[in-house]
Structure formats: structure tokens, C-alpha cells
Design a protein that fits this description.
279 residues, binds alpha-D-ribofuranose, Rossmann fold, alpha/beta, four-stranded parallel sheet
């Protein structure tokens, strides 16, 4: 259908539009789409496999030219049966650890290592981690980098140092009691939203951050600069991730026979105020 083809649309599925991490990702998707004269159709899958499958089908019915999938609930079967069968170019990223021809890679192992090195340099040994129950592949790698770096420095992270809670602001807030009970000198929250929720919870308990407990996040979302104390975190270049994912996808749409394209993007420590030396 010529009219649909000329529409030049890409479908984008992210896990959660309420998390600024993904709205920043979308910002990158939008700016590159605009430069390349494509229109993105964006959906938040809310960690719901059915919803994600539904959007996928609908996007394909509407003849999108390609897809960027950052959510993990899509199954390998769905990728094989829907995307591959229909010959639609796609790029999997972030929470989606599945293989795609083109990829934008973020070194989560290194990110976890940076997080651990920062806390170790401040003298922390009693460290807790706040993470979700079913971590996606990228989080598993992130935590692996974190744990290995601690272990290499002789700091053990026991199972009981791991606090399980949903990966949201509320999840971080709800982890407060468990954190207080453990009384670590530092907490690594696997994303910023959790870290921000936890900081509020600690504040309500009269616990000072970072004097009593340091809190380290991961992502570098825009809110980090607007909380007290400002959040120290591991920066992910998420706007660039959105731009690069879109660039690679559109390159692929426009030239199917391109060699596989891979872009690697760095992570780095963004030191603000929520971490400090052990007192
Ligand atoms: O905040 C969302 C988190 O989930 C980020 O750390 C990102 O990498 C994703 O997997």
C-alpha cells in the first residue's frame, strides 16, 4: 500500500512511560525521527506481555516500517513469528536482552563496576542493594559488575544484603524499612527512581543522606538535580541511546542489506550529593 509506505513510521515500545528514563529515550527517538522524516508511534507496555503483543500486532497492521523494542515482555516466539516472518526490521535495546541484527550497547558490567568502585573509594563495606524481583538481563549484568568489583576488594554482598522491591519510586520508598533494618552505610539502588523513593523514606525516618546512609542510583534522570540531596548516580546516555537506536533502525529500513551495525555507548559516574564517606 503506497500511501501507508510513504508514511515512514517506526513503532517504539518501552516498558514504562512514567519513568523519565524512558521519556528521555523517547526524546532521542523523536529528534532523530524528525531529522530523518519518520514519525514514531510510541507505546508504554507497562510490563504486560499481552498489552505488548497487542501493540505489536496493531503496529504491524498499520504497516510500520520498523520497530524499536526496549521492553522485555515480548517473547522470542513473538519476535520470530511476528517480526521475522513479516520481514520487519527491528532493534532490541535496554531491558530487552534478545538478539537483533543491529544493536546499541551499553556496558552494564562496567556500570556496576563504576558504582561499586565509587562506594569502595568512600570506604563503604556494609552495602545493600535494592533491586526488582525479576531483573531483566541488563540488570543482571549490572549487578554482576557490582558484586564482582566488591568481591575483588574483599567486600561480600550476601543474599540478605539484597532488598527486593518494584523498580519504581514507590518501590524504593517501600524498601525503606528493610534498609533501615539492615543498617548499611551505603545503598546501591539499581535505578534512580528507586533511589529517589528510598531517599524520601529515609528522610521520613530521620535518617540523613549521605551522613548516615549513602544512596547511589543508576540512570541519571532529569529529576536527580531537583531532589535534596541531589542524587549521585551512574549516567546512562539515554537520549543518545534513543537517537542511535533510531539512526540504526532507519539506516536498516532504507538499506536492508547493510552489514550488522553496532554502537557502544559509555556509562560514567555522575557525582552529586547523596553519597559520602563512611563516618
Ligand atoms: O530506570 C529504568 C531502568 O531500567 C534503567 O536502569 C534502564 O537501563 C532499564 O533497564
Amino acid at each position: 500500500n503506497l500511501i501507508m509506505r510513504s508514511a515512514q513510521t517506526i513503532g517504539v515500545i518501552v516498558p514504562n512511560l512514567g519513568n523519565p528514563f524512558f521519556s528521555m529515550f523517547i526524546k532521542g527517538v523523536q529528534s532523530t525521527s524528525r531529522e530523518r522524516h519518520f514519525i514514531p508511534l510510541i507505546f508504554g507496555a507497562n510490563y504486560d506481555e499481552d498489552l505488548e503483543g497487542y501493540y505489536l500486532q496493531e503496529l504491524i497492521k498499520r504497516a510500520v516500517d520498523g520497530l524499536i523494542i526496549a521492553s522485555s515482555s515480548i517473547t522470542v516466539d513473538a519476535i520470530d513469528n511476528i517480526l521475522k516472518k513479516n520481514g520487519i526490521p527491528y532493534l532490541l535495546i535496554d531491558q530487552n536482552g534478545g538478539p537483533s541484527l543491529d544493536s546499541v550497547r551499553i556496558n552494564d558490567q562496567r556500570g556496576g563496576q563504576i558504582a561499586a568502585e565509587h562506594l569502595l573509594a568512600l570506604g563503604h563495606k556494609k552495602i545493600a542493594v535494592v533491586m526488582p524481583e525479576d531483573p531483566t538481563d541488563n540488570l543482571i549484568v549490572r549487578l554482576d559488575g557490582f558484586k564482582h568489583t566488591l568481591a575483588a576488594a574483599g567486600v561480600a554482598l550476601e543474599v540478605e544484603n539484597t532488598i527486593i522491591s518494584p523498580m519504581t519510586k514507590l518501590g524504593g520508598y517501600q524498601a525503606t524499612a528493610a534498609v533501615v533494618k539492615q543498617a548499611p552505610t551505603a545503598v546501591f539502588a539499581v535505578n534512580d527512581e528507586m533511589a529517589l523513593g528510598l531517599i524520601r523514606g529515609l528522610h521520613e525516618q530521620g535518617i540523613r543522606v549521605p551522613e548516615d546512609i549513602s544512596v547511589l542510583g543508576y540512570d541519571d534522570i532529569d529529576l536527580d538535580d531537583y531532589v535534596v540531596p541531589k542524587l549521585t548516580t551512574v549516567h546512562q546516555p539515554v537520549v543518545t541511546m534513543g537517537e542511535q537506536a533510531t539512526t540504526l533502525l532507519i539506516n536498516r529500513i532504507q538499506k536492508r542489506q547493510l552489514d550488522p551495525q553496532t554502537v557502544e555507548l559509555p556509562v560514567e559516574l555522575k557525582e552529586r550529593e547523596s553519597t559520602g564517606p563512611v563516618s
